[in-house]
Amino acid sequence: MTKQFTRARCCFLLLSALALAVAGCSSIEPNPTWAAANTGYVDFHCDTSSDLSWDVYRVEPNGKTKKAFSQYKPLPGNVLRVTAKPGEQRYRVGIFNRVTEGPEEIGVTVEDGKVTPVKVTLVKSGTVTTQDKSYSFRGSAKGYARGAKFSSEENPVLDITLQSQPSVAYEPKEKMPYSKKE
Known about the structure:
Helix content is 13%, strand content 50%. It has one helix and nine strands, in the order αβββββββββ. It is elongated, with a radius of gyration of 25 Å.
């Protein structure tokens, strides 16, 4: 009887610890139906729904950065929403899947239960030519030979401009006036 009680107690403690660990690892949903308590939101949005790969870091007062959102896979739509603590926040915004002059920083005031929109504008500031060299086998008079094929492509270089806008009442990001439907 005591062995069964001890086993049941160990299983209970193990399951309790697992439940606490899972609950502790969960993060706040960035697009809930209503705003969470003691939480503000920042919407980074573009005029076009160009499927951008966002790279957004929060800059701490000591200068260190903490990832707010970073994903190589492009997000559908034109709005990236991140959760934030209420108060003054600083963000460094970059785009992975476009040639840019580098990330830009912006300071925003985040209010509890509200959304602070940040308009992201991508302006062409020049072009860059990328070259690609690929090797393949091709027929020749002596049989097959290895040959190099060169190709070049011109890509626009974009300058990222950020403009903070006044905080607005919370709505899911699909209902915000700047959200573009796909």
